[in-house]
Amino acid sequence: MKKLSFRFALVLALSICLTLTAAACGSKNTDTNNGKNSGSTSTEQQTVTFWSWVPTDVQAEKAIAAFEAANPNIKVDYWRGEQTDFQKKLQVAMAANEGPDLLGMQVGGMLNQYANTLEPIEALADTNWGTGWQDKFVKASIDQVRAKDGTMVALPLNLTGQEFVLYNKTIFDKLGITKVPTTYEEWLSVNATIREKGNGIVPVAFGAKDIWHDVDMFVALSNQFAPGKIYEAEQGKAAWTDQAFVDTMTAWSKLFTDKVMQDGALGLSTYPDARDQYFYSGKAAMFLTGSWHAGFSLPGGEKDGTAIENDETGIFLLPQIGPNESKAVASVDTALSINKNSKNKEAAWKLLEFMTQGEGQQIMADFIQGSPAKIGVEIQSLDQFKFESEREAIKTVNDAIENAVGKRLLDYPELTNAIGVAMQDVAAGKSIETSLKDIQKVSDGIDRK
User: What is the model's pLDDT at position 33?
Assistant: First the structure.
């Protein structure tokens, strides 16, 4: 994102959720804005292990180099995996008490699953930062990193939102498409033009094989039909067979029958299939994704080396399909936690501090992986974008996250899975009524205490 206004930075901060559980801390550090103040006072070399899916390898290389320069007695051993691989590895390691010192954490179900193995953060932060430190974070992001019992067991790294459409403006221009669609009818019209004149180009690429992405779409769509109703149903206060969800599933089904989604979408993952095989290869004009893709065209980013590296691209919000205005849904995307069984808690705290309140926040913000969780961070990399539409994409994403209608991620993984399976069933032709009853059955079995 561009050089952010204070207001924008506030929102960005919502996207940075992953690190602040702590441990036996060293000397008190009251200046959390300067990573250099986190330097290790020990003369003994320590290695802190850090596992996550964010930062990416490129982002981690820069952040870790800066951290190790400021803390010459601490070496960071970082392992990154895509979320599915990360969660599989973490589950095995934590069960064997062999988990990393610092770990990425997703708010909601994942955080609650591991809460009793994570170091409580607030006492650590009080000791190192003094009272009032919570005001350094976007408030909504701090609220999301607590376990069900209210214990804070992570700190936010960044915030992300859904649902957005990444589009190839160069293709749009060649086909005479001068305006991005804001309504469903306009979207259908744009898609028809691409099919007619695009010489085989697919209008929209979507990875419906991924339950997480299907549910992102459901959450965003449902808020167009009945804003906030999904969060009531999540807590057992509304029925999943409610008309709002019938309408949501009907709209979802139409995306397939109206050929908005490409043929075979149910067999494609978001990454790498829809992204690489379709959008990055220039075979699709649009790609449904999240706000984290706003910075993909920065030099050295994902766009480099692809078939569209010289094309102009941009982002727009999911068009309005329901009766209410289309708005983003946003949550802390990545939070950072300290392993309660870590033998390097002091070093893990220093790295957590660096990433959430120190120089690491600025590094992550400039990569535009998500919106910063720290208040007052200004994006300093906007001038690196080649096209104005790419700079404008940052504003589009920022404004949408700042005005989000609700959270993106649901609290109960079994409910998320049930919704995703039901969506795939509906897309494949199963009855909407039966599929919603399937969700209700799972919801009825959830222990919400």
Answer: 40
